[in-house]
Specification:
By secondary structure, this protein is α/β, with parallel strands linked by helices. The chain has 8 helices and 7 strands. It has helices spanning 6-14, 21-33, 42-56, 70-75, 95-104, 118-121, 141-149, 175-189, and strands spanning 60-64, 84-89, 111-115, 129-134, 152-161, 193-198, 204-209. The protein has a 7-stranded mixed β-sheet, sandwiched between helices. The radius of gyration is 16 Å and the shape is globular. It starts with 5 loop residues before the first helix and ends with a strand. 39% of the residues are buried. The mean pLDDT is 95.
Amino acid sequence: MYIVHQEIEKYAAAHSTPESEVLGRLNRDTYANVLQARMLSGHLQGNMLATFSQMLRPRRVLEIGTFTGYSAICLAQGLAEDGLLYTLEVNEEMEEMISKYISEAGLSSKIKLLIGNAMQLIPALDETFDMVFIDADKLNYANYYDLVFDKVRKGGFIIADNVLWYGKVLDKQDKDTQAIRHFNEKIQQDERVSNTLLPLRDGLMIAQKL
């Protein structure tokens, strides 16, 4: 299910700042050589993540779920001069590709890639984050939220991808969909945040810590 009509998405993309040369190559490489390439954030969502980062000028960003590195590169665009982005990826086979494109984007000193289970990696991070981007296994979305919440500064943002789950949140009952619906309801009921579910691409939940 397309959340936004395909022709509207094409029009929007045509009237948005184009991908950088590195991001364009990463996009093509992902679709040509990586399974489940649709997991890539892509042009419009990547632009939006970069815009969020540029508005916030964060010192510390945490990304849970790197995939091939597209969103990490976008999120790093607005980092403060002394800023650092931690990105966590469970699939060690992606490490070489991720590192290659981070280097080609000139961001090796700004992005720290950690390979492993996020449930184990997050508690070991002794940082206070301005922004967290969750885009990993759906069953653990609520767990990731709980793990990072106290590490996010007041006024900081937690953003989660795929919260419309191809429209399945409206009527499907599989485990991933139920987990996303539970996560969305959890955020909606959390009085510690102000939140907006943005129907961009596959849905972004944007929660600001009060």
